[in-house]
Protein 1
Amino acid sequence: MHLIESSFFNKGPEKLYAGVAGNLIAFACKKSLELGYDGIVSFVSKTKLIDHYEKTLGAKQFRGNQMFIDTPEAIKLIKRYFKDENKD
């Protein structure tokens, strides 16, 4: 992923929508899975968000600010944000 950013009205305690970044990342994982890349995505994080991404998305730090989401965590995100597609 190159860049994701919340809109100015969707930051801080007064944000309009919750989970926007998680939803966008889940979508990237879903596309990665569909394209044969096992759901894996990588990105460069802002330093202050590294811990947050580890806790909320299951992202792993690779080197410096470089992070990635591996297959098991990608599948969890896809199931969390795309519940309608998980019905049998």
Protein 2
Amino acid sequence: MITYEGWGALARPQSLQPLVDKVDAYNDWAATRRGTLEQAIVTEAERLLSGPWPPLD
């Protein structure tokens, strides 16, 4: 939801860029490291949720 609807609607904040990049890489059909990317997405989401909200750019 964040990458396809939220990020653009929020004027593409830099604070969400790492999450968007990881999700885009995961969604690439040629991705061969899906397990690694899954963990990276979860780690980035945890980082975002543990900080101030909304995230500071």
Protein 3
Amino acid sequence: MNRPFSVYLDLVRFIAAVLVYLYHSNQRFLIEQILPASNFGHSAVIVFFVLSGFVIAFVTTTKETTLSAYSASRISRVFSVAIPALVLTIVLDSIGRELYRDIYEGYPYDQFMARIGGSLLLVNEIWLISITSFSNVPYWSICYEWWYYVAFGMVMFLPRRQGLLIVAVTMLIIGPKVILLAPIWWLGVLLYHWRAPREMSPVASWSMVLVSIVGIVLYHAWGISEIVSEWLKSLIGADLHRSLTFSKFFVADYLLGVLVFMNFAGMRNVAAAHGSVLMVVEKPVRFVANYTFTLYLLHQPLFLFWGSVVQGDPKTPWFWVTVTVLMAGSVGVVGHFTENRRQDLRQWLIRRFSRLMPATTAAGASRNV
């Protein structure tokens, strides 16, 4: 992966996390006016999925070439933030509810064992069940992505037939909601391994970028996601449609995933040829990217908590701005001790896994069919 394109992906990742924050913080107790760019939350998660598949394909080809290294990296990446996020969500919700209970209306605060257990095992979204992790609504996507990591690892590092069998059994247990969005994640894997997009001409690459941008703008301007979701509801019924929760937009999500695929495919070549602009902003982009996962996984409980503490006036933007600054500062503090320290956990896990797991490489597994 060329460095300018890597910077571009980090920039996209951070912007997507900010868009998710705008989507969730667009609440009238914080600000009476509708926030700009606040209706792209679900779309931003689709961007995350494509990007994640691409990055995982890259690291398993270049860095995480053994099952032990891959497992240690994925576990440390997810749980270094997920466990602190779960603990902090419970603590922040408990305090916030005492200070300003009204803003927590609609967020669950019961069945602690089910919510904690589901969140720790990342099974909140199995089959047609949806267990919200208290006020931390964005937690749902990591309960999808984790199982994509597991499936990819089984296919890459185990003998092919054994890996596919385990994946099939795992997906049978996890159920349809996670499976429905899996093709979007695998689009990122396809993008990394498919040689044809890398051999496109400069004109074709720029065309892919421009078409993808226009397509994404029109996708949202025309409300494609909502239109297609309503069509799906008419086919499967309101009850099943509602039970799909975050997967009920999957048909339109496939289209958006293809547009994101096109954007990344074109930008990889454009960045390689004209990456000087991206390299100018490399340091600040890398810095904020180091806190993206923490921002994504903690922003909702944090802004609700700080909203309950500040209790400002939503008629002016300053209440939202104050809460946003406090939220960002909190992300910086938490991320310093979690996301930015995950390498320590990774090294500890590698030492232990290397004694338990066979030294199976991705290439070795692919030959052992």
Protein 4
Amino acid sequence: MVEAISRTRDLGEFAEAGCRELFRLVPCVSTSYREVNLRTKMVSGYLWPYPGVEWFERHAALLGRLALENPLIAHMASGDGSVVSWADVDPDDTFRQTELFREFYAVNGVESQVALGVLNQPGLVTAFHGQPRRHSVQR
């Protein structure tokens, strides 16, 4: 993965290369690169395989409004860049009771998620996320 992203020239190439490599390495339904600005609450990202602009238009407002409900984003905001899953940071599954889980993750068939934090400036959370295929992540 490091070799693939080291050859990139800009953020778009970096996000795409990282997502493609994570998708290749981990049995995922999809992978994503996300940036969350904790001050402005703005969320941006890249998803692989690319679902089309309509998908982003349908979900952008909800993700922007509720992104911090994702326990992985909250965990990454603490500065920990380790690889973690929902099961690691939310062992009681309280995230499944949130609006974000019900209205976005459940609707899109995402049952679990892993994240790899990327170093960045304070107040900006960046990470590659993988949405594993069912039963590929053990609790």
